[in-house]
Design brief:
single chain, mainly beta, 1 helix
Length: about 80
């Protein structure tokens, strides 16, 4: 599931993902720093925020850097592993 928002100049993709460690669902907000089109691969900095689906608690808010080109979805999957 992907939601697109215009909350900032970098379009943000929001994914509903499963945290395999806890078995609970989380929202993962991903935007490419400097802008990027959903579905295209980019390397560089990504703004990532993970929140609990149940409580809305912020579990992670980081800037991730990828040396290998990734899509928004791939970065979302990476972020869930950091919580």
């Amino acid at each position: 599931m992907v939601y697109l928002t215009k909350g900032n100049p970098n379009f943000e993709a929001i994914f509903l993902s499963l945290d395999e460690t806890t078995g609970k669902h989380v929202w993962v907000h991903v935007s490419k720093v400097g802008g990027g089109i959903i579905g295209h691969e980019y390397e560089g900095s990504w703004d990532v925020k993970v929140t609990s689906l149940d409580s809305g608690e912020e579990l992670l808010h980081e800037t991730l850097y990828t040396y290998t080109p990734r899509t928004h979805r791939q970065v979302s999957d990476m972020a869930v592993k950091f919580i």
